[in-house]
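Minutes, methods subgroup
Present: GH (chair), OT, SY

1. OT presented the first of two proteins processed in the latest run. Sequence and structure tokens recorded below as shown on screen.
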Amino acid sequence: MTRKTVRIAMNGVTGRMGYRQHLVRSLLALRDQGGLALGDGTVLWPEPVLVGRRAPALEALAERHGLEHWTTDLDAVLADPSVDIYFDAQVTSAREEALRKAIAAGKHVYTEKPTATGLDGALELARLAAAAGVKHGVVQDKVFLPGLLKLKRLIDGGFFGRILSVRGEFGYWVFEGDWQEAQRPSWNYRAEDGGGIVVDMFPHWEYVLHELFGRVRSVQALATTHVPQRWDENGKPYDATADDAAYGVFELEGGVVAQINSSWAVRVHRDELVEFQVDGTEGSAVAGLRTCRVQHRSATPKPVWNPDVPATEVFRDQWQEVPDNGEFDNGFKAQWELFLKHVHADAPYHWDLLAGARGVQLAELGLRSSAEGRRLDVPEIQL
């Protein structure tokens, strides 16, 4: 057994997602399990190099987890030939420039989304990476969730017959910050800092729809700011200039219609923070983060509309739980494993910067659709 160290520059790990999901639940979890076996006698050992702007925070993280290497000098770490991969989980507005530098330095790149603030920049990143011959990947974690993996199993097995529609509900109430601390950083609600729920969530919806049901062919969206004033991390009020809710209708290849509501100004009355209902000629399913329930054509009840009497049926009880039939690992960790195998064993991998650019394109068109009040086609993009 040969252990190969893989040094990964991780920029943005002082943030919630970069720290919890990518550092702790992914790379450190890989170390806890003894590394990542490639199947040929080689075990990859991830060695994080923490990168950021706040030295005390980086030092504290490194000390907490027994890591040796951290720096506030991105240029220096990119110039280090022992660093194999650059990972970016910074704020959106800082990501494109850092990725350009990493690609120019010959590093393989793996990044959170959106990959850039506009489609032109996202496509340019994909072109630069292709020209440089580096491996590149974009986090598309939702398709690795247990609930959506079960949904994919149903699709692949032909459970739905002809799929007709998809309905998605995502979101929760993000505290304004005046009397309870907000669960999300304030930059998320400032358009000038790259914030907004369309920019944040439409890239997710693009790859979920694309992977499971087909390419998005058109979008009609309404983006709005329901909560116009919030309070930042220092308790100071500020104007929310970015959208905090978006209501989208997406037409997919093959005629499937998807409707997805995204909101940080909604109180949750569903089983999970995100749920997708899929209806087909032969059956329906409701999938969340972890669970998936189905109702087959043969077991569909016959509701009758009668507003004069109370409902006597418990509709949720008429659905059947889809069994796990296996163990599901953390979705972020699962994708990290695939990307590391792609880099070091040339394993197949298609969640690349071009796929990331499709998400940026859909967000850009969604905002434009909302501003212009009309449905827009989503052209196919290529390098």
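2. SY then presented the second protein from the same run.
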Amino acid sequence: MLRAARPGVVRPGSSHPGAAPQLHVGARLEDAFDRRLAARLRRRGWTVRIEPYAGYGAPGWVRVLARTLLAAPTVRAADLPGAGGSAQAGSAAASAVRGWRSFATAQVAGAPLEVRVGDRTHHVVTDRGGYLDVLLEADLPPGWHEITLAGADGSTVVAPVHVIDPDVRIGLVSDIDDTVMVTRLPRLFVAAWNVFVRHEAAREPVPGMADLYAALRAQDPRIPVVYLSTGAWNAAPAIGRFLRRHGFPAGPMLLTDWGPTNTGWFRSGPRHKVTQLRRLMTELPDIQWVLVGDDGQHDPEIYAGAARQFPDHVRSILLRQLTYGEHVLAHGLTAPTHESVAAERAAMRGGIAVVQGEDGFELLRSLRARNLH
């Protein structure tokens, strides 16, 4: 039964207030700047908006994800970065916008929210970055649901949440950058162009990956899909619209926040992925996960580490092989790093199937050839 998570408990990586007893100097400086900025914007008439993200859960609990932001009164709801966030649940998406709009907002720390989950009402507060990431008690049946989040001024939004059927035994975790979406993220100027300027409709999917995921879920459409990335939460709605536009299955995203953390100047992308994988495998102990990524940076090491720590919870590891040019952009070499190759071999020695291919079509052919599909 999928009941391991304990609602109300602060877990590693949670954005719950009070998760760190002493803030790093970088975080204190950022908070001071944000307070002054928020005060100035409020005087100009900016109002608090709630940006909902898709969550997940199991019988008895749900993980709720959202953020509180300040936006100008002239900004329409359809123009907010959260517009179209329901695409994460497979609902109709809003019109695409340019990426810079997702960053033209200001965070609101410590905002009180009322969360209505079915017949239950919970009162929560956002963290220093304006984020809400909390486990709440719930009595929802399996499937997709909408929960309501209300601000202090009475404004409301709905957030999708996927309650996983307790009979399901397989799940899919997917990286985003260069796994399902061609982003060339490590190349700073190209990444900035893709995020801030280039129209999101022009972003390119990795060939065959949507077909691969459809094939993996063909036998049981209840299989949960979680998109795990080191990308910023600001990009979540745009990514959700991209995934829906190109036929990828619905699923919550676990992204991160840029800037200083409670304990350091910079956030660690690999640590974020490790923490979130650990959460998934402890909160949903009956699920065996298919982990999908690429061999460009840290996915092989991270996934091999998860397989080593939770061998009963990793079904297989699928790695998209980057081209020579993509490898150069990723880490300056024309081939996977020695650490990546060693991690893949370690996972195979541990009995975990590791499948590689240049795109989704080749990965699917390899899976079928090895009778792993």
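Chair's summary of item 2: The chain is about 30% helix and 25% strand.
Next meeting: continue with the remaining queue.
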